[in-house]
Specification:
The complex is a heterodimer of chains A (175) and B (146). Chain A is mostly beta strands and 175 residues long. Helices cover 10% and strands 53% of the residues of chain A. Classes of the chains: A mainly beta (175), B alpha/beta (146).
Chain lengths: 175, 146
């Protein structure tokens, strides 16, 4: 226990450049699932500030055709190559980053996808462990909120909502 | 004559069916089978994005490119090879194809390599972590690094 408390130095910032975001869209025409394993994330434990940055072309699909449609027709990733989130852990004072445990985080901030910025709120989990901090969350967005056009031919067959699942393991930011 | 027409119609239907099946089930190919459209050093690639990211996006975004450079570090879970100058915060981050995880065991910092990957874009230093050009589905290429 003494050794543990020695290794649990309070760090101000934690980060990763290899965070994982998976999205799921379930609909009669096709279920779509894609994962991005190069998500950048920084958490400032002092202020509760939380940021994510995701490159849209980094989402990997099982099917090549789906990946092309996603980039060219829906996300227009040549024009809008990035999505990001800038927000705050509202209940940051209730999370003890130097005491191992699982904490619930209330997160609020601005999510920018496809060039459109919206205010979002979600609940996530922060796991504090000797090896580092893990942050996870999942929430649902409306495709129409981000001006993502679904061709009228498949409008009734493609889901109007997308579930986004975030899973990151954060390391202390030195310096 | 009618029989021939029916036969032709059946052949066309089968061909369309096979094509549709291939499109629907077509997996994303391994990059070992795909030729790269450009070969550039890690330093020049980073410099191109830092100078004019819109122009560099037009050249490299979504393209399969080969990048040569010194290994800065090797990360696991997921497997990432980071290329660039040790003195600089900016890097080319190459997330490796899972089929190449074994080969990664022999890689060390300071070693020159050629890596072919799908350029997914540039992340400017918005988060205070250094700027990165990000490649995924990466494979190691043999041959002398430039």
């Amino acid at each position: 226990m003494v050794a543990l408390s020695v290794t649990m130095h309070a760090q101000d910032k934690y980060y990763t450049k290899s965070g994982k975001i998976t999205f799921y869209s379930k609909a009669p025409l096709e279920d779509i699932e894609a994962t991005n394993k190069s998500v950048a994330c920084v958490v400032d434990t002092k202020t509760g500030s939380l940021q994510f940055s995701v490159l849209i072309k980094g989402f990997e699909f099982e099917n090549e055709e789906m990946q092309e449609h996603f980039n060219d027709d829906y996300m227009e990733s040549n024009q809008f190559p990035k999505a990001d989130f800038k927000g705050q852990i509202v209940n940051n004072s209730q999370i003890n980053y130097s005491k191992p445990g699982t904490y619930t985080a209330q997160v609020k901030g601005q999510l920018t996808i496809h060039g459109i910025t919206k205010e979002v709120q979600s609940t996530g989990t922060i796991i504090v462990a000797p090896a580092g901090v893990k942050a996870a969350s999942s929430f649902v967005i409306q495709v129409a909120d981000y001006n993502i056009q679904i061709p009228s031919l498949v409008k009734d067959k493609v889901a109007k909502t997308v579930k986004i699942v975030i899973d990151t393991k954060l390391d202390p930011l030195k310096g | 004559m009618k029989r021939i027409l029916i036969l032709i119609a059946i052949i066309i239907l089968i061909a369309v069916g096979i094509y549709a099946y291939k499109v629907y089930t077509g997996k994303v190919p391994s990059l070992t089978e795909v030729a790269s459209t450009a070969h550039i050093s890690a330093a020049n690639l980073i410099a191109a994005f830092e100078k004019d990211s819109a122009a560099a996006n037009r050249h490299y975004l979504g393209k399969i490119i080969t990048v040569s450079g010194m290994i800065k570090s090797v990360e696991n879970k997921p497997s990432v090879v980071v290329l660039g100058n040790l003195g600089s915060l900016s890097s080319v981050r190459c997330t490796m194809d899972t089929a190449f995880v074994k080969e990664m065991a022999s890689l060390n910092s300071g070693q020159p390599v050629n890596i072919k990957g799908h350029c997914t874009g540039y992340r400017a230093d918005d988060l205070g972590l250094g700027a990165d050009v990000v490649l995924n589905r990466c494979v190691l290429e043999t041959g002398n690094p430039k």
